[in-house]
Amino acid sequence: MSTSSYTPDPDRYLAGAFRRAGSSGVLLPPISLGLWQNFGGDRELATQRAIVRRAFDLGVTHLDLANNYGPPPGSAESNLGQILRADFSAHRDELFISTKAGYTMWPGPYGDHGSRKYLLSSLDQSLGRLGLDHVDVFYHHREDPETPLEETMGALADAVRSGRALYAGISNYSPERTREAARILASLGTPLLLHQPSYSMFNRHVERGLLAVLDEIGVGAAVFSPLQQGLLTDRYLRGVPKDSRAAGGGFLSSDQASDELYLERVRVLQGIAEDRGQSIAQLALAWVLRHRAVTTALVGASSVAQLEANVAARENLDFGDDELAAIDAVAIDGTGARR
Questions:
Q1: pTM strictly above 0.85
Q2: 264 lies in a domain?
């Protein structure tokens, strides 16, 4: 990678208010950059670099990763590591970088799930790929019913005590397991900082207890897939483009993007968004941020223009009661789900 000529925008912190993560001292931008997709070895590194630079210029200080992000797994961390070395060596302390472990990373019984051996080995590998001595948050990526929760939380606490992470987080945990995880971590002197669940207008499972628990115990939510893998955009209103996620399969199928009930609901949302001077995507991002337990919404980006459009959602985060009622009539859990 070429030597950096990057100078961050001096006004990068003037654009948007930061939000507190639960009852902690951590402040995060309302829109954060997730590197789940578009940052693997199959994408142009120069485009990734431009997106990360522009994000920082817009005050997006939080970059979210996991050990398995790619493809191939690990490549998103490796790519960001190159970008950090080239452009951000003088700005590391302005960035809030997270990673996770919990899904398969290498063969055998020690490369998956929630054991101490897997989690701490994975964290060391992540730090090597990133070229960092610590991440700001280390998450357990999913529940592991076969491993005692005390072991998993103990590994997170040890990651913090060792200085390899500053805070501990969990992702995809039920309300009950979240409460218990927070209790165990507190007993070990390492408060739970963040929970990372999926949440969107068409995926509202967190409203059935999780957000209330997070609010009660003072833990922030960093929600992922707020645009439901692109379903909460105008991308599919006129059919499924050949270069879209739905056309390529994976987490989103062409059947989901062409379902008539889904399209009817998105057309209603488009009208509400237009009345607010927003795109559907901006409306969807503002909507998940309406709940006080939600600290930040993680968005991906395949281009600088897409990033800029998503970050602009923070310019209008307020809703009237009539707007919320109109949205609620079509924001139905399970819309667009695989059938």
A1: yes
A2: no
